Amino acid sequence: MNVIQTLTAIFLLVSSPLAIAAEDRFDIPRKKMLAEIVADMKYTAPVAGKTRLSEHTIKSMAETKRHLFVSRELLPYAYRNRPLPIGYGQTISQPYIVALMTELLDPDPEHRVLEIGTGSGYQAAVLAPLVKEIYTIEIVPQLHKKAKERLSKLGYTNIECRLGDGYFGWEDEAPFDSIIVTAAADHVPPSLVRQLKPGGRMIIPVGAQFVTQQLTLVTKDASGKVGARQILPVRFVPFTRGR
What is the pTM of this model? Predict the structure, then answer.
């Protein structure tokens, strides 16, 4: 599917009778956001190694309403292709980055996914239709509470939220088919590598707050051998640890 075909698919998707019945003033901004994501994928293909999104990722990005995950005062900016503050020094990630990280996980309907950094719940909501279960950890109590309530209210039944230090993962539910980390760590936590299944994938931004961070794809082959590949430079809030 080329860019023109992808954009056509997007507009057909969000213009279906079902979508129109439920649409609101965010319809046009959402379409624009999706078109920008598709264009960004083409622009970053030489470094990211991905030329386009799968139809499943596009569909989930189109159907997950980002305006429900930001504060009222930020509603006019909900579908801008950029990160937005959600309080407590945290952000909701840029839509393009959410889409790219989702795609790099290569999600499958039978996968169990661990997310470190629930934040607003947006990334988990995008992944939810694509996988079997999501276990998401947030260290900020206020964000954990809001995200858990929001995801429940929106009807997500395959997302389980936990308050805690994501550095140690979720041992009780390990191993996971894939792991996604939505804050920048200065190294890949060994505990997360251990909780990744053979054949699994982890996507994590690596680097300190004031230096270049690299979105990094960590893989574990069938024999348990671990490899890593830098995807592209990014800027994330720092990985917060417990005290």
Answer: 0.88
Query: How would CATH label the architecture of 3-234?
Result: 3-Layer(aba) Sandwich (3.40)
Cβ(131)–Cβ(101) below 8 Å: no
C-alpha of 128 from chain center = 10
In tens, the pLDDT along 129-138 reads: 999 999 999 9
Please, is 222 exposed, middle or buried when counting C-beta atoms within 10 Å of its C-beta (0-12, 13-18, 19+)?
exposed
The residue extents of the domains of the chain are 3-234
At 153, phi and psi to the nearest 5?
A: -65, -35
Identified catalytic residue from 16, 60, 71, 93: 93
Distance (Å) of CA 28 to CA 23, 35, 80: 10, 11, 11
As a whole number of angstroms, the distance between CA 45 and CA 145 comes to: 37
Annotated catalytic residue 93? yes
The answer on pLDDT for 76 being more than 50 is yes
16-58: per-residue pLDDT in tens? 444 444 456 899 999 999 999 999 998 888 888 888 899 999 9
CA atoms in the 13 A half-sphere facing the CB of 108: 9
